[in-house]
Design a protein that fits this description.
The chain is of the alpha/beta class. It is 51% helix and 9% strand. It has one domain: Glycogen Phosphorylase B (Rossmann fold). The protein has 13 helices and six strands. The chain is globular and about 75 Å long.
Length: 306
């Protein structure tokens, strides 16, 4: 069933965007409103790190991945629109590089909506729920993806906590600083440059952006992104969480190689997500908030017709 859903999404991507993706690859899905605190940018930084690893070792054995983004940005939200451009530009550079072909594909699906979600959600292998801890309200997107057999890559925040408690920490990829740690770092003076200086891979990612690798012919296109990360304090802690995120992504890739082990965790996720069903939610609301009690209704047996 999952493979059929991946093939359906792959066909849609090819039909609408002319991009061919491998249904056998890991479908890493990040679909939600585009906002800095939801950290689509952190995902993009990790993609660049993977790109560098492949360039350093073109003959290496890398798990094929398709990174699928779906989002909308508010009309006046400049940084969100710049991040969308950044993700698309990364995808274009990688698509032109023969060393990467068949290993990484980046797809941004515009005009994300319910009808598009109906195709994307059942096809997801990995669900990106990576908002800065303490910033995310308890949404339902992560629940829909988990119910449809996607393993969650997430911070300890919002409904991710409830999902982790339901499915077990062994069946979810949790990374990053927790809300209380973010608060303490903010209070004590978070210095993103310190995190940059201690991580050689992250420094290389930032250097490639600064050198214009992903905006050839358009100097300074992504200076706003660099400024937000470094000079303006990295408000959403991308740099502080980068290493933990990259390590969690490697754990996900390693698990995906072992398809039976991956399938087992998927089955456990789906089986243990029953508490998030709409039936349970409505029944609980009726009992605890609306003070309603169910009323038995007798239905007469239908008469047989000749």
């Amino acid at each position: 069933m999952k493979q059929a859903n991946k093939q359906r999404l792959a066909a849609l991507i090819t039909e609408r965007h002319g991009t061919v993706v491998d249904p056998q690859s890991l479908f890493d899905v990040h679909v939600k409103r585009l906002h800095e605190y939801k950290r689509q940018l952190l995902n993009a930084l990790h993609i660049i790190a993977l790109y560098h690893r492949i360039k350093d070792n073109p003959a290496g054995d890398f798990v094929p991945r398709t990174f699928i983004f779906g989002a909308k940005a508010a009309p006046g939200y400049h940084m969100a629109k710049r991040i969308i451009k950044f993700i698309n530009s990364i995808g274009e550079v990688l698509a032109r590089d023969p060393d990467v072909r068949g290993r990484i594909r980046v797809v941004f699906l515009p005009d994300y909506c319910v009808s598009l979600a109906e195709v994307i959600v059942p096809a997801a292998d990995l669900s990106e729920q990576i908002s800065t801890a303490g910033k995310e309200a308890s949404g339902t997107g992560n629940m829909k993806l988990a119910l449809n057999g996607a393993l969650t890559m997430g911070t300890w925040d919002g409904a991710n906590i409830e999902i982790a408690e339901a499915v077990g920490l062994d069946n979810i990829f949790i990374f990053g600083h927790r809300a209380e740690q973010i608060e303490a770092m903010t209070r004590d003076g978070y210095r993103p440059l310190e995190w940059l200086e201690r991580d050689a891979e992250l420094r290389r990612v930032v250097a490639s952006i600064r050198q214009g690798v992903f905006n050839p012919g358009v100097p300074g296109l992504f200076e706003d992104i660099l400024r937000a990360l470094i000079e303006c304090g990295d408000v959403y802690f991308h740099l502080a969480d980068f290493r933990s995120y990259a390590d969690a992504q490697q754990r996900a890739a390693d698990l995906f190689r072992d398809r039976p082990a991956w399938a087992r965790k998927v089955v456990l996720n789906v089986a243990r997500m029953g508490r998030f069903s709409s039936d349970r939610s409505i029944r609980e609301y009726a009992r605890e908030i609306w003070n309603l009690r169910p009323v038995p209704v007798k239905v007469a047996a239908a008469k047989a017709t000749t």
